[in-house]
């Protein structure tokens, strides 16, 4: 029957059909003899092993195994315990590569039950094995990371915990055995449960905050990040928790400090190490006029005025650079150009390592306070000067006027009582003395009244043109008798300059300065009056020089100050009031000039004053 031509055709057609079907399968199909000869292989198997069909038919199965014992193990299992085996084996390809294959092998027996062939299906699972290994490696890494991270991790299934890491156990105080199988809501504070349930119901993925209850019933604020993940084709919720209680407290503190700085009644400025501004608060803008954007990146020197010298800034930088706090006052300039006073406290900001990282300036606008202080100082000065004026006024009346008037009255009384007993020459001496006393008293009284008018602002000051040569001549005439008494020569070079000046009451100045020079000059000495027109100016400077006792350096500053009431005796014990030089200063200044003195003890003095030319 098997030799019949029709049967042979049938068999061949069946083989073609089977071959056609198996060649299109994605797995390898084979049949081998007991000794390992391949008698059938489909295209997929040939491709898997990188051979052609013709080549693979001539290969022994034994030559394909990487580990020969795997073949022995398969055959032993098939022949003794089962008709089918499924194992993972390592096979060599034609190019020498190794593939991992799942080999499902069955036995083919004859009518007597003897094994005559091995049929098998070979599936290349190399990529799958790589994926499995990668997954195992990934899971191992995940486990290590989960155990090492400081964040608490919970995996739960609709609220029921299925896994945790050590960090969450430490964070809550519960061990893993207690946590696993427990509902996550057991650990969520009632105030946070509504939000947690809403996010679970809508499967929210993201970050939000909850209050968590520890085992000891204390609580902490947790920032949690939730994601849905697939594990073994099942969806779970992974929750990462961070204890942010400390951070929240710091944020509250920072917010409080920030609010305090922002709303501070003092200007707050933060600069970098180069002194460039990195932050200013609103008060800075209110005080200076510079907006935040205008100030950032600028140096505080934009506020500097000429009042603050470079030495002040040098001291400031040396102080704060050494880690110390600098305190002081600045006269600064606003954006609109107006000035203002500020009291500043500038300190370094130091990090945990002790390094200076920034500088902080707290500045208070003290403009109004300075005005009040200045007004108070001015008021005190005016009061002091008023008291000094009053004291001098009464001193002159009580001593300098009373003395001459008393002497005058005594002489008159003596003259009256002895009029008939004294000679005409003696009477004439009496009259000369009375004349000098009258002149001295009159001059003093004129000075006192003039000075009083100046203090009360009642002096009608009338600037008029005066010939300087005539002024000098008249002034010398007034004092020449005093000069003769001490044999003092008054020389003047003013006669060489015939100019007119614009002034009023300047004769009093000349008289007082000449009287002073005579008073402090030695007998048989000389006084010089000089003048010169100052360059590039409509001003003439007049000087009166003597070679008398001079003035010590410490007393020069007292000469023109009423509060010091400086007066000394002359070379012949002449007594002065101290009023003359003070009156000179006020009259010269009212005429638009200045007065000064150069002097050296035992060498004499030179008084200079300036006046405007006509």
Rg: 59 Å
Kindly provide the name of the CATH class of the largest domain.
Alpha Beta
Low-confidence stretches: none
- The overall average pLDDT, rounded, is 83
**Strand fraction band?**
25-35%
Give the strand tally.
Answer: 22
Name of the CATH architecture of the largest domain: 2-Layer Sandwich
Total number of distinct structural domains: 5
User: Total helix count?
Assistant: 18
Shape: rod-shaped
Classify the helix fraction into a percent range: 40-55%
Using the coordinates shown, work out and report the CATH topology of the largest domain.
Answer: Heat Shock Protein 90
Quick take:
This protein is an alpha+beta fold.
Describe the structure.
- This protein has 614 residues and is an alpha+beta fold.
- It has 18 helices and 22 strands.
- The protein has helices spanning 5-23, 43-48, 53-57, 68-80, 126-148, 166-172, 176-179, 190-201, 245-262, 282-288, 292-295, 310-321, 367-417, 424-455, 468-485, 506-519, 553-556, 579-590, and strands spanning 28-32, 38-41, 84-92, 98-109, 115-124, 152-157, 160-164, 206-213, 219-231, 234-243, 267-271, 277-280, 326-333, 339-350, 356-365, 464-467, 489-492, 500-503, 526-533, 539-545, 595-600, 604-613.
- The strands form 4 sheets. Strands 16, 17, 18, 19, 20, 21 and 22 form a 7-stranded mixed sheet that branches.
- The longest helix is centred in the middle third of the chain and has 51 residues, at 367-417.
- It starts with a helix and ends with a strand.
- The mean pLDDT is 83.
């Amino acid at each position: 029957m098997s030799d019949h031509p029709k049967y042979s055709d049938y068999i061949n057609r069946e083989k073609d059909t089977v071959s056609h079907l198996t060649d299109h399968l994605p797995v390898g199909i084979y049949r081998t003899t007991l000794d390992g000869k391949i008698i059938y292989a489909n295209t997929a198997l040939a491709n898997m092993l990188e051979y052609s069909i013709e080549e693979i038919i001539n290969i022994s199965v034994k030559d394909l195994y990487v580990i020969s014992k795997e073949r022995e193990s398969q055959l032993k299992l098939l022949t003794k315990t089962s008709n089918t085996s499924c194992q993972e084996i390592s096979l060599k390809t034609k190019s020498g590569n190794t593939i991992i294959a799942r080999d499902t092998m069955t036995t083919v027996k004859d009518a007597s039950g003897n094994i005559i062939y091995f049929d098998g299906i070979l599936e290349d699972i190399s990529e799958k094995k790589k994926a499995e290994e990668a997954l195992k490696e990934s899971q191992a890494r995940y486990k290590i990371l989960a155990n090492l991270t400081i964040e608490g991790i919970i995996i739960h299934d609709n609220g029921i915990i299925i896994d945790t890491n050590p960090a969450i156990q430490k964070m809550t105080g519960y061990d893993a055995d207690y946590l696993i199988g427990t509902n996550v809501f057991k650990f969520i504070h009632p105030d946070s449960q509504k939000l947690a349930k809403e996010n679970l119901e809508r499967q929210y993925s993201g970050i939000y905050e909850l209050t968590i209850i520890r085992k000891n019933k204390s609580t902490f604020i947790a920032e949690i990040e939730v994601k849905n993940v697939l594990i073994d084709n099942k969806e779970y919720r992974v929750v990462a928790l961070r204890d942010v209680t400390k951070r929240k407290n710091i944020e509250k503190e920072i917010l409080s400090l920030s609010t305090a700085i922002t709303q501070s009644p003092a200007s707050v400025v933060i600069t970098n190490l180069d002194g460039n501004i990195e932050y200013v608060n609103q008060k800075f803008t209110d005080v200076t006029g510079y907006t935040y954007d205008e100030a950032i990146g600028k140096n505080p020197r934009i506020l500097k005025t000429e009042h603050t010298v470079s030495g002040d800034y040098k001291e400031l930088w040396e102080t704060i650079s050494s880690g110390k706090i600098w305190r002081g006052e600045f006269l600064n300039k606003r954006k609109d150009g107006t000035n203002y006073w500020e009291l500043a406290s500038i300190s370094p900001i130091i990090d945990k390592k002790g390094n200076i990282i920034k500088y902080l300036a707290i500045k208070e606008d003290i403009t109004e306070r300075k005005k009040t202080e200045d007004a108070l100082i001015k008021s005190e000065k005016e009061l002091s000067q008023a008291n000094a004026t009053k004291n001098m006024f009464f001193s002159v009346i009580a001593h300098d006027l009373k003395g001459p008037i008393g002497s005058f009255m005594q002489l008159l009384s003596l003259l009256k009582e002895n009029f008939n007993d004294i000679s005409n020459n003696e009477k004439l001496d009496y009259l000369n003395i009375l004349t000098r006393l009258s002149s001295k008293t009159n001059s003093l009284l004129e000075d006192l009244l003039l000075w009083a008018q100046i203090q009360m602002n009642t002096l009608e000051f009338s600037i008029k043109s005066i010939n300087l040569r005539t002024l000098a001549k008249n002034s010398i005439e007034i004092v020449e008798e005093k000069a003769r008494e001490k044999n003092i020569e008054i020389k003047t070079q003013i006669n060489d300059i015939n100019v007119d000046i614009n002034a009023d009451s300047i004769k009093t100045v000349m008289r007082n300065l000449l009287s002073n020079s005579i008073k402090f000059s030695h007998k048989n000495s000389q006084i010089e009056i000089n003048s010169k027109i100052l360059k590039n100016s409509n001003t003439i400077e007049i000087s009166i020089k003597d070679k008398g006792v001079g003035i010590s350096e410490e007393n020069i500053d007292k000469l023109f100050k009423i509060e010091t009431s400086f007066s000394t005796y002359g070379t012949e014990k002449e007594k002065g009031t101290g009023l003359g030089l003070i009156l000179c200063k006020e009259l010269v200044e009212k005429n638009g000039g200045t007065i000064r003195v150069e002097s050296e003890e035992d060498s004499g003095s030179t008084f200079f004053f300036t006046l405007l030319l006509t």
